[in-house]
Amino acid sequence: MAIQWFPGHMNKAKKAIIDRMKSVDMVIEVLDARLPGSSANPLLESISARKPKLKILNKRDLADDARTQLWLDYYNSQFQTQSIALDASERGNVTKVIQASRQLVPSRNGLDKPLRVLICGIPNVGKSTLINSMIGKKSAKTGNEPGITKAEQRLFLADDFWLYDTPGMLWPKIIVPEGGYNLAASGAVGRNALDEEEVSLELIKYLSKHKHYRDLLAARYKIDEDDAELDTWREETWLETIARRRGTILGGGRIDYQKASEIVLTDFRSGYMGKITLELPNEWLKWLADARVA
Ligand code: GDP
Fold first, then answer.
1. Distances (CA, A) of 65 to 189, 211, 220
2. Which of 5, 71, 144, 207 could form an S-S bond across to 123 if both were Cys, CB 3.0 to 4.6 Å?
3. Ligand 1 centroid to 125 CA: how many Å?
4. 3-state SS track over 32-94
5. All domains in the chain, ordered by first residue
């Protein structure tokens, strides 16, 4: 799986982020709660290594609550790190974010100095929605396309709390294959970057291996075969059955796998299958270790 993310833009953004990092007290990293490991950019980790970090697990309304708790525990046990889970559209986020940040950096040489915070996140994690909900605006977004660089913004969330939006785009970085598929399933990497059928098959493979998610999948597509039968199904069988249930059949009775895949991905992205998280902290660490060995 090879995805080319315009190295020129990436380097420019990287320089700008490194530069901004020098004059902030802490970093907020917005992650997708359904794929916290995959939606983190390791570049940010290396650039911000010595800054206190608030990891926001956003889209918690779409994520599996029990798994979100495991990720919160995992991050909260790390040095200089706090983690909270949010739904960007909820009210009261600004208070939660300021409170959690204040706990991380209790004071900065007296009360007269504002807390300077850089907020980062790869596209699609909901950073703009969160910023807009915190400043109480409908939209402040310019665009995600390569070549459009958002002007850096300094936002005053409170007199003593300055939020800097990331200068440039922090692109997703695929470091393990599973992470690439999870990013694609969430919609964070472009529709054309990966084959939708492949992505939906990987998604189904993961879901069908976890009993609770397999039940959600079966319920969504009214698949009522018994467990013993479902145990024998490969992801291709699932996709074919979903296609038949949804009637994505072409002339001559051929199955339209592309259409069935789009249905599966749209249902996952919009939460119609239920609350699902595609990785656990331990799973993510194992994928990383395996990728390093390979
Ligand atoms: P950005 O690229 O990180 O700035 O992401 P956006 O703010 O544009 O959000 C990407 C998509 O996710 C949009 O369709 C948002 O409406 C949606 N979104 C953002 N935050 C949440 C959330 O907490 N829950 C849900 N369900 N959707 C969200």
1. 24, 16, 19
2. 144
3. 6
4. ECCCCCCCCCHHHHHHCCCCCEEEEEECCCCCCHHHHHHHHHHHHCCCCEEEEECCCCCCCHH
5. 7-165 (3.40.50.300), 177-293 (1.10.1580.10)
| CA 109 to centroid of ligand 1, rounded, Å | 36
Structure-token match 């291996």, residue found? 209
pTM, entire model: 0.91
Q: How many angstroms does the Cα of residue 165 sit away from the middle of ligand 1?
A: 16
Task: Tell me the per-residue pLDDT of 245-294, one tens digit each, with 9 for 90 and over.
Answer: 999 999 999 999 999 999 999 999 999 999 999 999 999 999 999 998 87
Residue with structure tokens 């059949």? 249
Q: Is 187 in the pocket of ligand 1 (CB under 6 A)?
A: no
Chain segment 154-190, per-residue pLDDT in tens:
787 888 889 999 887 788 888 899 999 999 999 998 7
